[in-house]
Inverse folding.
């Protein structure tokens, strides 16, 4: 059947003028573009690294947001603390990170609102107050569902997330969720280029869960800082200023303007074959 | 001539400032058979009297397990309780699915409270004709909440709703100070004694008409019925006189686990 208005006794053009098709999609002569979905990220953050140790987790990401290969923004903080027990590290699209950050803020407001209804009598007792606080595990489950919902709508949030903190039993927790809704957990994790460059180094430090239970906080922080340096050496979308956070029983300790120390570019003159260099 | 003109719907106030439909709904709760609930530091129990339509028929269910960590006891219209319990089951499951955590009892109670309240505020809707006791253990420990058709919810240490529940509440008030440090078995016995107190002279607690729900810090909510509660009924009322005077009810039993 012909659904076009001409076939349905539309007022004549010579009296009323030509039909105005602007409200129609462009395929029917209108002005509307077809709806589109994110086909690729625009402004991006590179790797996020995280490592579990005996009493907590350390996580790091540099402060750079690239526009393609252009180092566009140098003060973008990609570690977002959720509460005293959880931090989220964002790799991938920065606008999607900002969307998720706002989502997490409203979730936090909701959490604090509902948890204050009902029994105020337990407010004074230590321990019981912390119990209903959303754990990193709860947060990871939620974020993984959000990511999976969006990919199922064919409108993914173009991020790779690391969620670190403490689980319901106050044990160190580290897991990832990505744009496909895939989840993964290990004693050490790295997203993006870090998965190739840093993960092997981190796995040497903690080959398994048992090793991460033995690892001290100092050793863990040192290993992460070393990996940030290796990434700066070899990842062209990285930067020498970064954020690092440690989550343990005492809460979140976040530092957002660390600088790489003791760099050595001695290996650089042996690298050949890039750019305008011929031999 | 004596017709009440202000009880046609739940959105019209009487000149005295009352909403009769809500009060009628609360009356429906008082018609239901009695249910009681108590919490200690470690446990939460529900106890209920089940009624049967006739001697040869089965008994109406009074305690409904909702999630593994809590359950409800109802007094009033069972069909309205079904609507609410289905909603609670759905919400509890949603919490486990999206956040991987059991829903807080204060949270679920607030949600059904809000739902019941909106029913009292829209033309063409009616209040739920059921009162609930919500008991279980969550991340904050054992809890007991009472829910009324008006949408009012209260947290309590012990409570009772339904027909003749005043007698049960009197027992609970007399023993209020003991509950906090009660063990599991003691708490169940207190609940059964409170239930017994609200019974009319010619009635008795039997394995057929009594229903029990227990949840603890290391124990999922479980419904006990029939032969499972025979032991409790026996040990609770073997020293009947002592049990009914109340104050020393807890002593002499060291089955505390």
């Amino acid at each position: 059947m012909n659904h076009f208005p001409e076939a349905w006794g539309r007022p004549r053009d010579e009296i009323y003028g030509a039909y105005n098709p602007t409200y129609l999609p462009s395929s029917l002569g209108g002005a509307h573009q077809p709806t589109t979905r994110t086909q690729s990220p625009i402004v991006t953050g590179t790797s996020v690294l995280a490592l579990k140790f005996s009493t907590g987790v350390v996580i790091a990401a540099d402060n750079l947001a690239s526009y393609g290969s252009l180092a566009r923004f140098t003060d973008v903080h990609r570690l977002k603390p959720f509460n005293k027990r959880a931090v989220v590290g964002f790799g991938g699209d920065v606008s999607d990170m900002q969307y998720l950050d706002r989502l997490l803020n409203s979730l936090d407001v909701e959490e604090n609102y509902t948890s204050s209804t009902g029994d105020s009598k337990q407010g004074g007792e230590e321990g019981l107050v912390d119990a209903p606080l959303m754990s990193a595990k709860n947060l990871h489950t939620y974020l993984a569902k959000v990511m999976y919902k969006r990919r199922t709508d064919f409108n993914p949030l173009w991020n790779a997330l690391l969620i670190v903190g403490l689980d319901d039993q106050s044990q160190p927790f580290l897991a990832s969720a990505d744009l496909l809704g895939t989840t993964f957990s290990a004693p050490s994790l790295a997203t993006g280029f870090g998965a190739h460059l840093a993960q092997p180094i981190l796995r040497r430090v903690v080959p398994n869960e048992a090793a991460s239970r033995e690892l001290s906080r100092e050793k863990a922080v040192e290993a992460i800082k070393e990996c940030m340096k290796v990434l700066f050496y070899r990842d062209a979308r990285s930067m020498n200023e970064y954020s690092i956070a440690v989550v343990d029983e005492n809460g979140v300790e976040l530092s957002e303007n660390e600088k790489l120390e003791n760099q050595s570019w001695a290996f650089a003159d042996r690298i050949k074959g890039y750019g305008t260099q011929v031999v | 001539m004596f017709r009440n003109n202000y009880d046609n719907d739940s959105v019209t106030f009487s000149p005295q400032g009352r909403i009769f439909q809500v009060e009628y709904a609360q009356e429906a709760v008082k018609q239901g058979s009695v249910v009681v609930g108590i919490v200690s530091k470690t446990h939460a129990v529900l106890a209920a009297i089940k009624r049967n339509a006739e001697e040869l028929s089965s008994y109406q269910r009074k305690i409904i397990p909702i999630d593994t960590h809590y359950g409800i006891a109802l007094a009033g219209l069972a069909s309205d309780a079904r609507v609410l319990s289905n909603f609670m089951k759905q919400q509890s499951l949603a919490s486990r699915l999206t956040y991987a955590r059991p829903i807080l009892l204060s949270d679920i109670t607030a949600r059904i409270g809000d739902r019941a309240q909106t029913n009292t505020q829209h033309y063409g809707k009616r209040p739920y004709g059921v009162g609930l006791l919500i008991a279980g253990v969550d991340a904050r420990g054992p809890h007991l909440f009472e829910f009324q058709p008006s949408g009012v919810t209260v947290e309590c240490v012990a409570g009772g709703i339904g027909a003749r529940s005043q007698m049960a509440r009197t027992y609970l008030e007399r023993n209020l100070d003991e509950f906090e440090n009660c063990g599991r078995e003691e708490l169940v016995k207190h609940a059964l004694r409170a239930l017994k107190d609200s019974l009319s002279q010619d009635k008795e607690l039997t394995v057929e008409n009594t229903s029990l729900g227990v949840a603890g810090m290391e124990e999922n909510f479980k419904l006990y019925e029939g032969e499972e509660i025979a032991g409790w009924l026996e040990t609770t009322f073997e020293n009947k006189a002592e049990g009914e005077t109340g104050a020393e009810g807890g002593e002499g039993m060291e089955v505390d686990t």
